[in-house]
Amino acid sequence: MKEKIVIKIKGHLNESWKEWFDGMDISHEGDLTVLSTDKKDKAFLHGILNRIRDLNLKLISVDIIEESEKH
Hints:
Elements: E1 2-10, E2 25-29, E3 32-38, H1 42-54, E4 59-67
């Protein structure tokens, strides 16, 4: 199983923010921005969450999702 980090924040961030979030993929669901990437270590996740806090963005959710690998 492969794990993925999915973070939802209020508002819309465009692709120019990708560098600020260490290359995480940026997409949108309604009025939310969705940041996602393959699971990294805990330090990576804490760094991203600290950046969201420092930018005064409203955190909606953080999920670790298991994806089945297709062969």
